[in-house]
């Protein structure tokens, strides 16, 4: 039945108008100094994530730096190793550059996955209400009740972790936040007359849900996706720090774990600071951009704008 | 010296792009003990003026020039601290929506006491006494001061806000649309109360409203505002009896009167000017049918004497203009040929004993014990039918079940009993067979045009959506969308198709909503108060479109409203509902001129009149509709009916108890003379109640002293 499907023309129309809105939104976000700062950091982070391994002077794990035949253990920054070396003589700068990629993957995909899953659950739950809502919301209660780190550790101790698996685990634990918020938002929008009106005009549930309700809560969805990126990065780094990261790749969290295990955490500042600042800078930027974005999404400010 | 003098006031609002000139050189004055009315449509600057008198202008608003003096004291340069003394103690305010203006977590008594304590140094006991006193003045039970706002009905809450305004014996009360959103009967009682109180405590009243009728009936003097300018000013009687200004004429003619049948309602074409620049010409010239070049030059000065002054260059031709203004064609409205009666066709929809009961939630324990749940009988055994080309008006107070009825008939909610037959077949069968097909034949228009369009959809997408759902070809869609958009009066369609709803005015939005409903060529159109949120001048326009559609497209229309005046203009037949039942039905003219059911008669009498020469007796129907749970046996209206006998309380009258052709009323003792049988009795009953409560207080008072 076509009443339950989305026709191509409507979809295209929607996409172009959404694209136009996205451009306007970015223009507004760009007005905010904090957000501008955040966007620049995020852009450089994405750049390092994509090309870091190629611009790194050494291989982060295989190359052991030596000077006069002796392994350079825990040396302070010097001409040969710009950011010093680890206790095994590895170049910290190379590890930092290579370590951005897993962080980017976890952050980006974990965040987007969380956003999408949470949006869909919230939309379905809020739109249909009743038993479906009851079931989905008890499910979110369950994920709220389970502590993230212990549960993630439990899962990861049975399987050998890799970046994608960790991303998946994070999504499973983080979707509840956007789901809750989107649900309450959908419940408000659902009560508005135009939704009832769409039903009276003969639109099916899918059409009403995605063409009438969803666009009106999309802003909040984006906002929470941005926040989820920050949460995923922090949670991914925490897991790596606890030794449950992917053992075959270098990541910022894993760098912190190694410096902690080596016992040099109070001495080798050049080894601690780069990953620590990296994580802090990226998450802060995400929130800065998110905050500027929130000003647009906030319904009160929005009505003034229109 | 006048109590309040507003002299040449200019108010602007700063917005990011431009300044909005909301009020431009307005002057008026209120004498002590007078009722003054400010009438105008939304955007005319009347609320802005009221706020400036209270010193409560929004942060971006500013009084640019002019002065406001109150009791000889200049108000425009008061500091916030000085304002606090003036507000409430000298100038009190009755806000528009009583629903929102009371704090839900404080008892009403506490809220009123708070106002007293802020301004006066009195003991709690004394404050309490005063609260009980004002409660009694506004006709509320003084024993209920410790109740919370949600325990009061809408009308009673409005009384609480009035009590709150009275409590400090202010010299001036500003009432901003005090009855908007209330039912006519409640409105009548509130207005009556306001007038009585005013006599009693001798304060002045500034009444702000868009209802010409309310002003015409209550105020001594009036200013008609438009676009931030005074269009006409003077004694209410003179202004509305013999308007000199074309805008006043339009406004008065657009205001529907209950007993004007089948007359094409007048609407003022166009919309308010955007006031980003100070007006250079007459602010009304763009919509005025009599505008000439002279009107472009400057806004005309107010010319006339104290009794009546009008801002128009053609005041001397007022008589001629009045005559022309009474003709809809002057306002650019096409009057369709009169071929009434002939085109009413077959029955489209018929309901038979239709019921919609909502189960009230009860505690789990009661559920387990097998307790029978209570039902809210929103719709309780309704038999109605709607024919082709006919408009059936469904009238009733809020809470009488008319909106539920509408949603059930259009299958947006399922019924709990009875049958709905659509073209002779049960709706349930049709829905099972093909929901889409059914939806294309029955369409719905909602009350709130500001909320019934998806803010993310352009007009084109909104109007074409129903067709897309039905799977119509794209070229066909484009053609029909254009056709329909132009049919509902949005011309040329190109101008509107690519607009977003927030770029449209309220009237335009409602027309888009009507286009959405009509684009499918439905057989039945159900309208739930489609014009109640629009200005008078636009209301008539929507009514005319619907009338035209019924005649031209042969569709059946159910028009639901609590506004009997607009119903009597548009509907061929009327059905009056009370507590989920139809108590009277028949041809509109019959029902309006000769109502038989006491409730229908009261409702009809309560409509305000714009003509100040009519002296109407107010309807003081006691009580409020009971909660439709656990209704007593017998006639539902019996507890409030002055004519009720034991028979009424035991037996439920059938709908056809009184029958005269198509005119039926569910009453054992049909009304013969409204005046003597109902209105006089209501008034007597109330006087008696007043005397009793006065006696109670007299008895009470010494007791509290000792």
TrEMBL record, chain A:
Domain of life: Archaea
Record keyword Nucleotidyltransferase present: no
Pfam families: BPD_transp_1 (PF00528), OppC_N (PF12911)
Transmembrane segments annotated in the record for this chain: 37-56, 104-128, 148-175, 217-244, 268-289
GO biological process, one term: transmembrane transport
Stretches assigned to the ABC transmembrane type-1 domain: 100-290
Record localization: Cell membrane
Protein family (similarity comment): Belongs to the binding-protein-dependent transport system permease family.
Protein name as catalogued: ABC transporter permease
Organism (species): Haloarcula salina
Lineage: Archaea, Methanobacteriati, Methanobacteriota, Stenosarchaea group, Halobacteria
UniProtKB/TrEMBL annotation, chain B:
Renumbered residue ranges of the record's region Disordered: 685-706
InterPro entries per the UniProt record, alphabetical: AAA+_ATPase, ABC_Ni/Peptide_Import, ABC_transporter-like_ATP-bd, ABC_transporter-like_CS, Oligopep_ABC_C, P-loop_NTPase
Membrane topology note: Peripheral membrane protein
Reaction(s) catalysed (UniProt annotation): Ni(2+)(out) + ATP + H2O = Ni(2+)(in) + ADP + phosphate + H(+)
Keyword presence, Secreted: no
EC top class named in words: translocase
Residues in ABC transporter domain copies: 4-252, 359-604
Signal peptide from the UniProt entry: none
Keyword presence, Phosphoprotein: no
Description of how the protein assembles with itself and partners: The complex is composed of two ATP-binding proteins (NikD and NikE), two transmembrane proteins (NikB and NikC) and a solute-binding protein (NikA).
PANTHER family xrefs: NICKEL ABC TRANSPORTER, ATP-BINDING PROTEIN, OLIGOPEPTIDE TRANSPORT ATP-BINDING PROTEIN APPD
Entries under NCBIfam families matching the protein: oligo_HPY (TIGR01727), PRK11308.1 (NF008453)
Protein's name in the database: Nickel import system ATP-binding protein NikD
Species for this entry: Haloarcula salina
